[in-house]
Specification:
8 helices, 42% helix, binds ligand GEK
Length: 240
Protein backbone atom coordinates (compact mmCIF):
# COMPACT_ATOMS: atom_id res chain seq x y z
CA UNK A 1 0.00 0.00 0.00
CA UNK A 2 1.55 3.39 -1.01
CA UNK A 3 2.14 5.80 1.85
CA UNK A 4 0.33 9.15 1.82
CA UNK A 5 2.98 11.92 1.57
CA UNK A 6 0.85 14.38 -0.42
CA UNK A 7 1.21 17.21 2.11
CA UNK A 8 4.68 16.24 3.45
CA UNK A 9 6.42 19.09 1.59
CA UNK A 10 5.55 22.75 1.71
CA UNK A 11 2.96 23.71 -0.96
CA UNK A 12 3.35 27.44 -1.69
CA UNK A 13 0.12 27.48 -3.68
CA UNK A 14 -2.03 25.11 -1.72
CA UNK A 15 -4.94 23.94 -3.90
CA UNK A 16 -8.31 22.74 -2.65
CA UNK A 17 -8.37 19.02 -1.93
CA UNK A 18 -9.55 16.90 -4.89
CA UNK A 19 -10.00 13.16 -5.44
CA UNK A 20 -7.44 12.96 -8.27
CA UNK A 21 -4.89 10.33 -9.44
CA UNK A 22 -2.39 11.27 -6.71
CA UNK A 23 -5.02 10.79 -3.98
CA UNK A 24 -6.34 7.55 -5.52
CA UNK A 25 -2.80 6.10 -5.43
CA UNK A 26 -2.46 6.52 -1.65
CA UNK A 27 -6.14 6.55 -0.63
CA UNK A 28 -6.30 3.36 1.52
CA UNK A 29 -3.33 4.59 3.61
CA UNK A 30 -4.66 8.18 3.74
CA UNK A 31 -8.13 7.32 4.99
CA UNK A 32 -6.92 4.74 7.53
CA UNK A 33 -4.42 7.19 9.06
CA UNK A 34 -6.79 10.19 8.90
CA UNK A 35 -10.25 8.97 9.94
CA UNK A 36 -10.49 7.65 13.51
CA UNK A 37 -12.69 4.57 13.57
CA UNK A 38 -12.55 3.89 9.82
CA UNK A 39 -11.01 0.45 10.34
CA UNK A 40 -13.87 -0.46 12.68
CA UNK A 41 -16.64 1.07 10.58
CA UNK A 42 -15.73 -0.80 7.37
CA UNK A 43 -16.26 -4.35 8.74
CA UNK A 44 -19.38 -3.19 10.64
CA UNK A 45 -20.87 -2.01 7.32
CA UNK A 46 -20.58 -5.67 6.32
CA UNK A 47 -22.34 -6.77 9.49
CA UNK A 48 -25.17 -4.21 9.07
CA UNK A 49 -25.57 -5.19 5.41
CA UNK A 50 -25.98 -8.81 6.48
CA UNK A 51 -28.84 -7.84 8.78
CA UNK A 52 -30.76 -5.57 6.36
CA UNK A 53 -30.05 -6.72 2.77
CA UNK A 54 -33.24 -8.14 1.25
CA UNK A 55 -33.57 -10.75 -1.51
CA UNK A 56 -34.08 -9.25 -4.95
CA UNK A 57 -33.21 -5.72 -3.82
CA UNK A 58 -30.51 -3.25 -4.79
CA UNK A 59 -27.68 -2.19 -2.48
CA UNK A 60 -25.92 1.13 -3.02
CA UNK A 61 -22.55 2.51 -1.95
CA UNK A 62 -22.62 6.24 -2.69
CA UNK A 63 -19.13 7.74 -2.96
CA UNK A 64 -17.51 4.31 -3.06
CA UNK A 65 -13.90 5.51 -3.68
CA UNK A 66 -11.74 2.39 -4.07
CA UNK A 67 -14.50 0.12 -2.82
CA UNK A 68 -13.66 -0.59 0.83
CA UNK A 69 -17.25 -0.11 2.01
CA UNK A 70 -18.61 -1.62 -1.23
CA UNK A 71 -16.61 -4.84 -0.77
CA UNK A 72 -17.62 -5.02 2.91
CA UNK A 73 -21.26 -4.84 1.76
CA UNK A 74 -20.63 -7.46 -0.91
CA UNK A 75 -19.23 -9.90 1.63
CA UNK A 76 -21.84 -9.12 4.28
CA UNK A 77 -24.80 -10.09 2.08
CA UNK A 78 -26.70 -13.21 3.20
CA UNK A 79 -29.67 -13.00 0.78
CA UNK A 80 -29.66 -13.29 -3.03
CA UNK A 81 -29.68 -9.53 -3.78
CA UNK A 82 -30.24 -8.33 -7.35
CA UNK A 83 -27.28 -5.96 -7.57
CA UNK A 84 -24.77 -3.88 -5.63
CA UNK A 85 -24.27 -0.46 -7.22
CA UNK A 86 -21.27 1.74 -6.45
CA UNK A 87 -21.00 5.32 -7.63
CA UNK A 88 -18.22 7.91 -7.42
CA UNK A 89 -17.68 11.04 -9.48
CA UNK A 90 -13.86 10.78 -9.39
CA UNK A 91 -12.69 8.84 -12.49
CA UNK A 92 -9.37 7.91 -10.81
CA UNK A 93 -11.29 6.30 -7.92
CA UNK A 94 -13.75 4.34 -10.05
CA UNK A 95 -10.99 3.03 -12.34
CA UNK A 96 -9.04 1.59 -9.41
CA UNK A 97 -12.23 0.40 -7.71
CA UNK A 98 -13.16 -1.63 -10.81
CA UNK A 99 -9.81 -3.44 -10.60
CA UNK A 100 -10.39 -4.34 -6.94
CA UNK A 101 -13.93 -5.55 -7.69
CA UNK A 102 -12.72 -7.68 -10.63
CA UNK A 103 -10.08 -9.26 -8.38
CA UNK A 104 -12.62 -9.99 -5.61
CA UNK A 105 -14.19 -13.43 -5.70
CA UNK A 106 -17.95 -13.18 -5.03
CA UNK A 107 -21.25 -14.08 -6.76
CA UNK A 108 -22.88 -10.75 -5.82
CA UNK A 109 -23.18 -8.72 -9.06
CA UNK A 110 -21.59 -5.27 -8.87
CA UNK A 111 -22.17 -2.31 -11.19
CA UNK A 112 -19.84 0.70 -10.87
CA UNK A 113 -20.87 4.13 -12.15
CA UNK A 114 -18.65 7.16 -12.63
CA UNK A 115 -21.12 9.94 -11.93
CA UNK A 116 -22.77 12.32 -9.50
CA UNK A 117 -24.91 10.97 -6.67
CA UNK A 118 -27.28 13.89 -7.25
CA UNK A 119 -28.21 12.39 -10.63
CA UNK A 120 -28.43 8.73 -9.61
CA UNK A 121 -31.83 6.99 -9.68
CA UNK A 122 -32.19 5.06 -6.43
CA UNK A 123 -34.83 2.33 -6.48
CA UNK A 124 -35.71 -0.97 -4.82
CA UNK A 125 -32.94 -0.42 -2.24
CA UNK A 126 -32.58 -2.35 1.00
CA UNK A 127 -29.17 -1.03 2.14
CA UNK A 128 -27.65 2.32 1.17
CA UNK A 129 -24.22 3.42 2.42
CA UNK A 130 -22.83 6.95 2.51
CA UNK A 131 -19.49 6.31 4.21
CA UNK A 132 -17.91 9.77 4.67
CA UNK A 133 -19.39 11.09 1.41
CA UNK A 134 -22.27 13.44 2.32
CA UNK A 135 -19.76 15.79 4.00
CA UNK A 136 -18.30 16.56 0.54
CA UNK A 137 -21.68 17.44 -0.99
CA UNK A 138 -22.83 21.08 -0.79
CA UNK A 139 -24.94 21.47 2.35
CA UNK A 140 -27.93 22.83 0.42
CA UNK A 141 -28.17 19.56 -1.59
CA UNK A 142 -28.05 17.22 1.40
CA UNK A 143 -31.76 17.26 2.36
CA UNK A 144 -32.79 16.33 -1.16
CA UNK A 145 -30.25 13.50 -1.42
CA UNK A 146 -31.37 11.93 1.85
CA UNK A 147 -35.02 12.31 0.77
CA UNK A 148 -34.34 10.61 -2.56
CA UNK A 149 -32.56 7.76 -0.78
CA UNK A 150 -35.55 7.33 1.54
CA UNK A 151 -38.00 7.41 -1.39
CA UNK A 152 -36.00 4.73 -3.24
CA UNK A 153 -35.80 2.35 -0.29
CA UNK A 154 -37.93 -0.66 0.63
CA UNK A 155 -39.66 -0.64 4.03
CA UNK A 156 -37.31 -2.21 6.58
CA UNK A 157 -34.24 -1.09 4.64
CA UNK A 158 -31.26 0.65 6.25
CA UNK A 159 -29.24 3.75 5.46
CA UNK A 160 -25.70 3.79 6.90
CA UNK A 161 -24.39 7.35 7.11
CA UNK A 162 -20.86 8.04 8.37
CA UNK A 163 -19.71 11.64 8.74
CA UNK A 164 -17.16 13.92 10.32
CA UNK A 165 -19.19 16.00 12.78
CA UNK A 166 -18.84 19.33 14.55
CA UNK A 167 -19.78 20.35 18.10
CA UNK A 168 -20.50 23.43 20.20
CA UNK A 169 -17.44 24.81 21.98
CA UNK A 170 -15.71 23.74 24.18
CA UNK A 171 -16.32 20.19 22.93
CA UNK A 172 -15.31 21.15 19.38
CA UNK A 173 -11.78 22.00 20.54
CA UNK A 174 -11.55 18.85 22.66
CA UNK A 175 -12.61 16.46 19.86
CA UNK A 176 -10.59 18.26 17.18
CA UNK A 177 -7.43 18.10 19.33
CA UNK A 178 -7.88 14.38 19.81
CA UNK A 179 -8.30 13.97 16.04
CA UNK A 180 -4.98 15.76 15.46
CA UNK A 181 -3.36 13.56 18.13
CA UNK A 182 -4.68 10.54 16.20
CA UNK A 183 -3.01 11.84 13.04
CA UNK A 184 0.27 12.51 14.87
CA UNK A 185 0.16 9.00 16.36
CA UNK A 186 -0.20 7.70 12.78
CA UNK A 187 2.96 9.48 11.64
CA UNK A 188 1.61 12.70 10.09
CA UNK A 189 3.81 15.78 10.71
CA UNK A 190 2.52 19.17 11.89
CA UNK A 191 3.00 20.46 8.33
CA UNK A 192 0.98 17.60 6.83
CA UNK A 193 -1.80 18.11 9.36
CA UNK A 194 -2.04 21.85 8.83
CA UNK A 195 -1.78 21.78 5.00
CA UNK A 196 -4.42 19.03 4.73
CA UNK A 197 -6.65 21.01 7.05
CA UNK A 198 -6.37 24.10 4.82
CA UNK A 199 -6.90 22.07 1.63
CA UNK A 200 -10.12 20.60 3.05
CA UNK A 201 -11.57 23.95 4.12
CA UNK A 202 -14.72 24.66 2.07
CA UNK A 203 -14.47 21.14 0.59
CA UNK A 204 -15.41 19.01 3.59
CA UNK A 205 -18.20 20.75 5.53
CA UNK A 206 -19.19 18.89 8.72
CA UNK A 207 -22.52 19.34 10.49
CA UNK A 208 -23.52 18.37 14.02
CA UNK A 209 -24.78 14.90 14.90
CA UNK A 210 -28.18 16.45 15.65
CA UNK A 211 -28.40 18.14 12.22
CA UNK A 212 -27.58 14.83 10.54
CA UNK A 213 -30.11 12.89 12.62
CA UNK A 214 -32.84 15.48 12.11
CA UNK A 215 -32.30 15.35 8.35
CA UNK A 216 -32.92 11.60 8.34
CA UNK A 217 -35.93 11.87 10.66
CA UNK A 218 -37.42 14.65 8.51
CA UNK A 219 -37.00 12.48 5.40
CA UNK A 220 -39.30 9.92 7.08
CA UNK A 221 -36.95 7.30 8.56
CA UNK A 222 -38.80 5.65 11.46
CA UNK A 223 -35.70 4.93 13.55
CA UNK A 224 -32.41 6.83 13.58
CA UNK A 225 -29.49 5.84 15.81
CA UNK A 226 -25.87 6.84 16.22
CA UNK A 227 -24.21 3.40 16.42
CA UNK A 228 -20.55 4.53 16.51
CA UNK A 229 -18.39 7.53 17.35
CA UNK A 230 -14.62 8.02 17.59
CA UNK A 231 -13.71 11.64 18.37
CA UNK A 232 -15.30 13.85 15.67
CA UNK A 233 -16.15 10.97 13.32
CA UNK A 234 -19.39 9.08 13.63
CA UNK A 235 -21.75 6.65 11.95
CA UNK A 236 -25.54 6.52 12.01
CA UNK A 237 -28.08 3.92 10.99
CA UNK A 238 -31.56 4.91 9.81
CA UNK A 239 -34.35 2.41 9.20
CA UNK A 240 -37.26 3.03 6.80
C1 LIG B 1 -14.81 4.24 1.78
N1 LIG B 1 -16.85 5.29 1.02
O1 LIG B 1 -13.61 3.91 1.59
N2 LIG B 1 -21.02 12.11 -6.40
C2 LIG B 1 -20.29 10.97 -6.37
N3 LIG B 1 -19.20 10.79 -5.58
C3 LIG B 1 -18.82 11.83 -4.79
C4 LIG B 1 -19.53 13.05 -4.78
C5 LIG B 1 -20.67 13.16 -5.63
N4 LIG B 1 -21.39 14.28 -5.67
N5 LIG B 1 -18.92 13.89 -3.91
C6 LIG B 1 -17.87 13.22 -3.40
N6 LIG B 1 -17.80 11.98 -3.94
C7 LIG B 1 -15.40 5.31 0.92
C8 LIG B 1 -14.79 6.62 1.29
S1 LIG B 1 -14.40 9.23 0.43
C9 LIG B 1 -14.28 9.86 2.03
C10 LIG B 1 -15.46 7.82 0.67
C11 LIG B 1 -13.04 10.58 2.34
C12 LIG B 1 -16.82 10.92 -3.64
C13 LIG B 1 -15.36 11.33 -3.74
O2 LIG B 1 -14.89 11.29 -5.07
C14 LIG B 1 -14.68 10.32 -2.82
O3 LIG B 1 -14.18 9.21 -3.53
C15 LIG B 1 -15.78 9.90 -1.85
O4 LIG B 1 -16.98 10.54 -2.29
C16 LIG B 1 -15.53 10.32 -0.39
O5 LIG B 1 -15.50 3.73 2.68
O6 LIG B 1 -12.15 10.70 1.50
O7 LIG B 1 -12.96 11.10 3.55
Amino acid sequence: MSRDRIYANNHDDLEAFAFDEAVARVFPDMIKRSVPGYTTIIPMIGVITGEYAQAGSHLYDLGCSLGASLLAMRHGVREPVAQLIGIDNAPAMIKQCQQYVDADPSDVPVKLICGDIAELVIENASVVTLNFTLQFIPAEQRDEIIQRIYNGMRPGGALILSEKICFEQPEQALQENLHWDFKRANGYSEMEISQKRSALENVLIPESATANMNRMKNAGFSQVAQWYQCFNFTSFIAIK
